[in-house]
Amino acid sequence: MGKNLIQQKRGKGSPRYRAPSFRYKGITAFARYEDGKTITSSITGLVHSSGHSAPLMELKHSNGETGLLQAPEGIKIGDKIEMGKDIELKSGNILTLKNIPEGMPIYNIEAQPGDGGKFVRASGAFAKIITKIEDSIVVELPSSKRKTFSPDCRAAIGIVAGSGRTEKPFLKAGNKFYAMSAKNKLWPIVSGTSMNAVDHPFGGSSSHAKGIPTQASRNAPPGRKVGKIAPKRTGRHKR
Description:
The structure is a single chain. Helices cover about 5% and strands about 20% of the residues. The chain has about 240 residues and is mainly beta. It has a domain at about 20-70 and about 95-165: SH3 type barrels. The strands form 3 sheets. The chain has a 6-stranded antiparallel beta sheet with strand order 5-10-6-7-8-9, with no helix packed on it. It has a 4-stranded antiparallel beta sheet with strand order 3-2-1-4, with no helix packed on it. A two-stranded parallel sheet has the order 11-12. The longest helix has 9 residues, at about 175-180.
């Protein structure tokens, strides 16, 4: 239908939708594996990165490397954290899931052993180990969903710092806009039925509720392939 949808504009690389990654402090990840060794890291600084919702701690590892990681609550400059097998269960320390007791808050969980951490990294977030099985460990994520991980995946003990971030109101739409643009998030999200007819297939008709079917064929052309794409069923699900 010749309509330029917003998701089409996002992918073309124009400056409006490009993340300012040159302002980011760096990648947050655990130190590299060293079999049988305990790595001690000293916290040399606490920094803010516009690409992360949580404050980051700058680490200097005992193997000579440096890195960044989400800071847990109660940490301060000068503290030391450890990564290994037989270490103390305290906030900030990094262990494999099989060595962490059930019910202890954890964050920055690895999806695959050695990837540095992928899950539970936002400010104020934490997960808990629910069940340990012989070859898998079930973890309850902040969304209350449960996910299975390998026992060799690492995680940090504690709760990610910055839990009060969402309590301060934005007050103005402009403040929210700049906060979202710092992380390359499109805001505000506008319903297609609220747009004009020229901007979206669901727009027009001078009102919010249009009564247009939201299903689209699998072979619908670009510009009309919006809404429910070739749905198997529609309507309310009866219990």
